[in-house]
Amino acid sequence: MSALLLVGLVLLLLVLRQPLFVILLALAAVVQLIWGRGQLDYIIEDMWVGLDKELILSIPLFMLCGSVMTRGSTARRLVRIMAAIARPLPGGLGVACVLSCAVFASISGSSIVTMLAIGSVMYPALRAADYDPKFSFGAIMSGGTLGIIIPPSIPLILYGLVTETSITDLFLAGVGPGLLLTVLLSAYAVWKNRAMPFRALDLGELARALREGVWSLLMPVILLGGIYSGYFTATEAAAVALAYALVIEVFVHQDFRMREFYDVVLEAAKLGGSLFPVLAVALSLNLVLIEHRVPDAMVGFVQTYISSPVSFMLLVNALLLAVGCLMTTGEAILVLGPLLAPVAAAYGYDKVVFGLIMILNLEIGYLTPPVGLNLIVAMSTFKQPFGLLVRAAAPFIVMMLVGLALVVWKPWIAMYLVDGRFG
C-alpha cells in the first residue's frame, strides 16, 4: 500500500508538471513519515550529511574550468590541431569536429559546454567547406555528448556520489567507451563524406598548430594523469584544472581577462543553484532508502520475475533509453542510479560497468526528443528548426547505439583500465 502511495504521488506531481526538486522533496517527506523517524526536520539533517562531501566541490570547479576555456581560445586551438591531423582523410573536417569534441570533453566534463565551444568554431568552417548542413549539425551535437562519457565527467561524478562508487574507477572506465564512440563517429564522418576532396598532410601546418595549442593539449594529460597516478583526488584535479586554465588563458594565450571571471563565476553559480538543491534532496532520500533496505527489496522483487541477466539488461537499456527521452541526465542519475545499481549488481554487473552503461544510454537522450538538451541548445544557438536537428542526429544515434551494444556485450571495453578484466 505504501509503495502504491509513492507511485501515485509521483504520477500526480508529474501530471501537475512539478519540477524534480519538488517531486524528490515530496518523496523524501513521505518516506520519512512512513518508513523513517516520523519527523520532517530529519530531511534537513540528511541533506546536510549527503552534501558534506569534499567530492561535491569538484562539480562547480569543473564548471568554472569549462567556462573559462570556452571564453578563451582553447577550443579554437584544439580545432586547428585536429583539423591538421585529420586533413588527409575523406571528410577530414568532420573527423576533426569529432576529435576536437573528444579532446575538449576530457577537459570540460560537460556535453553542453563541449558542443557550444567546438560548435561555435566548427560550424562556420564546415559550412565554408560545403559540408552538408545536416551532417554538420549532427556531428557537432553528437560530438558534444562525448562530454558526459569521457572523463572528467560531471554525470559520472553524480553517479559516483549517489551509488558510492569510486570516481577514479569511473573515470578510468569512461576512457574505453569514450574512445570507442569517438572512433565510431569519426568512421561515420569518413563514410558519409567519402566523396569530399581531401588534401595531403601538411607537416608545417601541423607543427604550427601544435606550437600554438600545446598548452591546451597538456591540460588533459596533467588532469587525468594526476588522477590516475594518485597525485590528485577528483576535487584536487578540478582545482588544478581551473588554475591551469586561468594561467594559460590569461597569461599565455592572453585571450581571457580576469575581469571576465566575475561573469564566469556568476554562470557557474546559476548552474549550481539549480543542481545542488536537487542533489541535496536526492542524497537525503537515498540515505533513508538505504537505511530501510529498499534497494534490497527491489532486488528481490525484480529477481522474482526476471531470472536471466541478459533479459534484465535488455529491459534496463530499454528503460534508460526511454527515460533519456523524458529526463535530463542529472535527473535520471539522481532518481534511478541508487535504485538500479544494486539490482544490476545482483545480476553480476559491477557498479562501475553499470554506471558506464547507464551514462551511455542517457548520453543518447541528449539527441532524442522531446527533452534532448543538445537538440534544444542547438536549436536556439544555430537558429534551426527542431525537426531538422532531430533528423540530423538520427544517423549519429545509430552509431552510438552500436557503441552501447558493444559495451554491454563486452564489458572489458570499460573495465580494461580499471582492473584488467577481459572476457
**Mean pLDDT across all amino acids:** 85
- Distance between the first and last residues' Cα: 43 Å
Number of domains: 1
Estimate what percentage of residues fall within beta strands.
under 5%
Whole-angstrom Rg = 22 Å
Tally of DSSP β-strands? 0
Number of helical segments with 4 or more residues? 20
Describe the largest sheet: none
What does this protein look like?
This protein has 423 residues and is mainly alpha-helical. The chain has one domain (2-415). Helix content is 78%, strand content 0%. It has helices at residues 2-15, 20-34, 41-51, 58-71, 74-86, 92-108, 111-128, 133-145, 154-163, 167-192, 203-229, 234-252, 261-291, 294-305, 309-326, 329-346, 351-365, 373-382, 386-409, 412-415. α5 (74-86) packs antiparallel against α6, α10 (167-192) crosses α19 (386-409) and α14 crosses α16. It is globular.
